[in-house]
């Protein structure tokens, strides 16, 4: 840990850094997995899904930065390489054997939902560590991920 005048005890900062790095690995993995869908989607909804998955990846990239920066602010080291993410991600591997738009919608919505659940768990963990800032950061990320999940799931939902 690097020295900082932030008024959070070092032992709590270490736990917060570990929590943030864990979600950072997941966010980087999510960003790249949505690019995988963007590059490989096929079918009648190709252009709509191709553009949607690109938008999802871009918005997740913003969350990556949002999660990464407080790590160094707290005195930690950001573990933000693709190799770091591959080792630490809690997300399942993206299926490589799909092309159909419906299958990609299902796969992307599943990883968005999994990431959203991990971020909500992070809110609770940050609250237990008595860091309202990190809990608020995760709340904002959660809100954004839920919106992206809505956009993707809408492609699989029919009117009732």
Layout of helices and strands:
Blueprint: H1 10-40, H2 46-73, H3 82-88, H4 101-128, H5 132-153
Helix pairs in contact: 1-2, 1-3, 1-4, 2-5, 4-5
> What fraction of the residues are assigned to beta strands by DSSP?
under 5%
Give the structural class: mainly alpha
Number of strands: 0
Shape: elongated
Task: Determine the fraction of residues in helical runs and give it as a percent range.
Answer: over 70%
How many structurally independent domains? 1
Count of helical stretches: 5
Annotated CATH homologous superfamily: Ferritin, core subunit, four-helix bundle
Whole-number radius of gyration?
17 Å
Average of pLDDT: 96
Looking at the structure, the CATH topology is: Ferritin
Give the CATH level 1 class: Mainly Alpha
Q: Describe the main β-sheet briefly.
A: none
Task: Assign the CATH architecture.
Answer: Up-down Bundle
What are the segments in which pLDDT stays under 50 over at least 5 consecutive residues? none
Q: Helices and strands, in N-to-C order?
A: HHHHH
Task: Provide a descriptive summary of the structure in words.
This protein is an all-alpha fold and 160 residues long. It has one domain: Ferritin, core subunit, four-helix bundle (Ferritin, Up-down Bundle). It has helices at residues 10-40, 46-73, 82-88, 101-128, 132-153.
Quick recap of the structure?
The chain has a single domain, classed as Up-down Bundle (Ferritin), CATH 1.20.1260.10.
């Amino acid at each position: 840990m690097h020295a900082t005048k932030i008024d959070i005890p070092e032992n709590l900062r270490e736990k917060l850094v570990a929590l943030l790095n864990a979600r950072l690995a997941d966010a980087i993995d999510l960003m790249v997995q949505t690019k995988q869908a963007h590059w490989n989607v096929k079918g009648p909804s190709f252009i709509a899904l191709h553009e949607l998955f690109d938008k999802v990846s871009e918005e997740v990239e913003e969350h990556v930065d949002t999660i990464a920066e407080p790590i160094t602010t707290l005195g930690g080291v950001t573990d933000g390489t693709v190799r770091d993410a591959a080792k630490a991600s809690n997300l399942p591997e993206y299926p490589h054997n799909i092309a159909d738009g419906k299958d990609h919608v299902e796969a992307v919505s599943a990883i968005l939902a999994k990431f959203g659940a991990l971020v909500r768990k992070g809110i609770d963990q940050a609250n237990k560590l008595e860091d309202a800032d990190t809990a608020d950061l995760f709340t904002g990320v959660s809100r954004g991920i839920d919106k992206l999940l809505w956009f993707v799931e809408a492609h699989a939902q029919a009117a009732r």
